[in-house]
Write a structure and sequence with these properties.
The complex is a heterodimer.
Chain A lengths: L4 H10 L6 H21 L20 E2 L9 H6 L4 E2 L2 E5 L4
Antiparallel strand pairs in A: 2-3
Chain B lengths: L2 E12 L36 E2 H13 L3 E2 L2 E2 L2 E4 L9 E4 L6 E2 L2 E6 L2 E14 L3 E7 L2 E5 L6 E7 L6 H17 L12 E11 L9 E6 L2 H20 L7 E6 L4 E7 L9 E2 L6 E2 L2 H9 L5 H12 L3 H7 L3 H14 L2 H19 L10 H12 L5 H13 L4 H8 L7 H14 L1 H8 L4 H13 L6 H13 L1
Parallel strand pairs in B: 14-15
Antiparallel strand pairs in B: 1-12, 1-13, 3-7, 4-18, 5-6, 5-17, 7-9, 8-9, 9-12, 10-11, 13-14, 15-16
The chains are: A mainly alpha, B alpha+beta.
Chain lengths: ~100, ~475
């Protein structure tokens, strides 16, 4: 499998990364070499091996259901670009 | 052409935990904006999510209650998209390995029962809230809701009418509140429904193209939105048009659905396993511990009400509409030993009075013990149905115990046969014409005389006893 420049641009757009044509082409070459690496690994027979979601065979630790956090709004909002009435203000969202 | 409707529902239920799914922030509703949004919830750099044990237990309870498969190992994924009320730029959800798969729910539509299969249910975090009022051309963001635990419950596309979809949504609502995993408050967004709707010619095997109606927060809107959408799709197709896959919103004011986004700009979420969270393991001991906390489920209780108290299937379904109602009925039925009579009173007089006063069963001024005592007095003949209604009014007003109200208001049914005989004699003397008519074969005259005796006794005579004694005197 190899990626086209359009694929790269689409991925960049989904991640909101602005890319010039030169950058897209350079990235395409790099990504394709990663895909070559994956292709090599895919030659290994993995039938009967279940896919893993994490590199270590340990499981999620759980937290008791207790509200432990206190209100730190003032501290958090001190570094926000714009706030009003306790709300964070962002450029107008139109869905 | 005859058309068939195909509906599948996705329901977001907010889990009834005290803290958020991945942080120790409170989930209490109605706090001032951003006062319940911790560093994890607002996605400051360097923070890590830690999973809430109760949220997982809620999901396990649900899986057990619908007879589903619980994935002993389940995995959280990142669903990537950009929106200001989603500070991380991704929502933590479960895609490939959800905690719950399969299961089924039985619904009642009119007199018939149907089983609807479920596809899956997975844990995820809620987003924050965007406020689009004008803040100098900007939007306001409240992240109190960000990170609130949700269980998204997905059905198979097995419903064939809006009535079935509503019945399923109601049954699901009853179940999640019954097992205590969701408060069910639809106004506050604790139970939100998305409906996937398509139509196809009757007999066609393939599904038509579906449109998804988002965020319906009442059963009434669910019904209206589906009915409108189905009509719109059929009209579009019959006019030679095509349905395009899309997400639509329902506007309650116009009663119409309108397009939110089409498939072309549908999101590409690029799901992948969240490296910040390890797979979740459910061991058998834990599952059994959770199972032990489950109450008797609505379906089991319906069956038991029928066998134990002799109520009809319909009554059993109504009485298990909520756990509080079922508990009330059972307490009243046990107190008087008269299941059917208790069912009639709970669904009749009591429900009517509660509706009128706009109260839930939990706020009933008449306790189940009092209602049971009242029914016992009907059963033992102390009260007629009519007198019982007066005692019920007394109980409603808080006038005390059943027997005290009967005594104080002189509502006891006449049990002294001598007294009754005397009234009958007087009525017969005063209504000689009716007596004559009855004796010459007019059965109707008998009813007139019974009415007169009841009236003379001020409603306290036992109607059965009046019938018997009067007939004896007239024919004897």
């Amino acid at each position: 499998m190899s990626l086209t420049t359009d694929d790269v641009k689409r991925i960049a757009r989904l991640a909101r990364i602005e890319t010039s044509d030169a950058e897209a082409q350079a990235t395409q070459t790099q990504l394709n070499s990663i895909f070559d690496l994956i292709a090599t690994m895919q030659a290994v027979d993995t039938s009967g091996v279940s896919p893993m979601a994490h590199a270590q065979e340990v499981y999620q630790r759980l937290r008791p259901d207790v509200a432990t956090e206190t209100d730190r709004r003032a501290a958090f909002q001190a570094i926000a670009p714009a706030v009003e009435n306790g709300l964070y203000l962002v450029p107008k969202v139109i869905d | 052409m005859k058309w068939e409707t195909v509906i599948g529902l996705e329901v977001h239920t907010q889990l009834a935990t005290r803290s958020k799914i991945f942080s120790g922030s409170s989930t209490a509703f109605g706090a001032a904006p951003n006062t319940q949004a911790s560093a994890v919830d607002i996605a400051l750099p360097g923070v890590l999510p830690v999973l809430n044990k109760s949220a997982v237990e809620c999901a396990i309870k649900f899986g057990l209650a619908i007879g589903a498969t619980l994935n002993r190992i389940n995995v959280f994924d990142r669903k990537n998209y950009f929106y200001p009320d989603l500070p991380k730029g991704y929502q933590i959800s479960q895609l490939a390995k959800p905690i719950v798969e399969g299961g089924a729910l039985t619904i009642q539509v009119g007199d018939s029962e149907r089983t609807i299969n479920l596809t899956r249910a997975h844990m995820e975090e809620d987003a924050g809230k965007s406020l689009h009022e004008d803040f100098h051309g900007m939007s306001g963001i409240d992240l109190n809701r960000a990170g609130t635990p949700l269980l998204e419950i997905v059905s198979e596309p097995e419903m064939r009418s809006s009535a079935e979809a509503v019945a399923y949504a109601r049954a699901l609502h009853t179940l999640v509140t019954w097992i205590g995993i969701c408060d069910g408050n639809m106004q506050e967004g604790s139970f939100r429904v998305d409906a996937n709707v398509s139509v196809r010619p009757v007999g066609q095997a393939e599904f038509g193209t579906r449109r998804e109606i988002k965020n319906l927060n009442s059963f009434k809107f669910l019904q209206q939105a589906i009915d409108y959408e189905v009509r719109w799709q059929i009209e579009t197709l019959e006019d030679g048009g095509r349905i395009e896959q899309a997400t639509v919103l329902f506007d309650p004011d116009s009663g119409e659905t309108r397009m939110m986004r089409s498939k072309e700009d549908a999101h590409d979420y690029r799901y992948f396993p969240d490296p910040d969270l390890l797979p979740v393991k459910l061991d058998e001991d834990w599952i059994e511990q959770v199972r032990a906390t489950l109450p008797e489920l609505p379906a089991a209780m319906q069956a038991r009400f029928q066998s134990e108290y002799g109520v009809s299937p319909y009554d059993a379904a109504v009485l298990t509409g909520s756990r509080a109602l079922a508990d009330y009925f059972e307490a009243a039925a046990k107190a008087c030993g008269q299941g059917k009579l208790a069912a009639n009173w709970v669904m009749g007089e009591l429900s009517a009075a509660l509706n009128k006063a706009d109260l839930g069963i939990e706020q009933s001024p008449v306790s189940a013990a009092h209602l049971g005592a009242l029914i016992a007095r009907i059963h033992d003949g102390t009260l007629s149905g009519k007198l019982a209604k007066q005692v019920f009014e007394g109980l409603w007003e808080g006038a005390g115990e059943v027997d005290a109200i009967i005594e104080a208001r002189g509502l006891k049914q006449m049990s002294d046969s001598g007294e009754l005989e005397k009234i009958i004699d007087e009525v017969m003397a005063a209504n000689a014409k009716s007596v004559e008519e009855f004796r010459s074969g007019k059965e109707k005259a008998f009813n007139a005389l019974v009415g007169q005796v009841m009236k003379a006794s001020k409603g306290k005579a036992n109607p059965a006893q009046v019938n018997e004694s009067l007939r004896k005197k007239l024919t004897g």
